Amino acid sequence: MISTAHSLSRRDALKRVIGVSLALSALDLSSFGAVQGIGTDPNLHKKEIPWPRVLTAEEKRIVTALGDLIVPADEFGPAASAVGVPDFIDEWVSAPYEQQQKDGKVIRAGLSWIDDEAKKRFKKGFADCTPADQTSILDDIVKDKTDAHKKAFDFFKNFRDKVTGGYYSTPEGWKAIGYVGNTPMVEFPGPPPEVLKHLGLA
User: Fold this and answer.
1) Domain-by-domain residue ranges, the chain?
2) What is the DSSP annotation of the chain?
3) Partners of 40 in the beta sheet?
4) Residue 115's CB: how many other CB atoms inside 10 A?
């Protein structure tokens, strides 16, 4: 049994909670919201991104061309560039966070490499090559896993993941894969009979 001498009345408990709240409100807590050197997180209630974008106009053209090769327009939905994936990539590699900064170095180096490779092979930049010529470079990257193409493959894998991640987080991407979440329903019909049967529940 708890001794009444050490028990708090409801009134005393409320006084302590209010006192702690007032003490915390008097503290300057702004430093807790930021990591040294990168500032605070963006205000998610506003659409603008607080950090400057780093991709050049030519890099953005390469991102657009390469992204549309990875997710082209077809019967399932529009191309990656049509739903803002190049802007998403630019925002990602420009962000002042450790992972994004690492990705930014890999992606920007890869964009430079693939553009130089296109100029060596076809005498023009990657964004100005035909889709067939662009695809031939990608085919070599994914087929040849030797040291000669290892960095290029690491870049392509990283870039591909960002493109598909950006694309399939849009309403158009959801529709392309048949995702029906985030949709209000009058009633929930439950799992179909074949699923219940497979699980041994029907």
Assistant:
1) 57-176
2) ---TTSPPPHHHHHHHHHHHHHHHHHS--GGGGEETTTEEPP-TTS-S-SSPP---HHHHHHHHHHHHHHS--BTTB--GGGGTHHHHHHHHHHS-SHHHHHHHHHHHHHHHHHHHHHHHHHSS-GGGS-HHHHHHHHHHHHH--SHHHHHHHHHHHHHHHHHHHHHTTSHHHHHHTT---S---SS---S-HHHHHHTT--
3) 34
4) 21
pTM of this structure? 0.69
Residue 93, token pair as written in the block: 């590699």
Per-residue pLDDT tens over the stretch 15-72: 444 444 444 444 443 443 444 555 566 676 776 778 899 999 999 999 999 999 999 9
Distance of alpha carbon 69 from alpha carbon 131, whole angstroms: 8
Integer CA distances (angstroms), 132 to 80, 123, 129, in order: 18, 15, 8
Tens digit of pLDDT for each residue in 178-198?
A: 887 877 878 888 888 999 999
Tokens 């925002």 sit on residue? 91
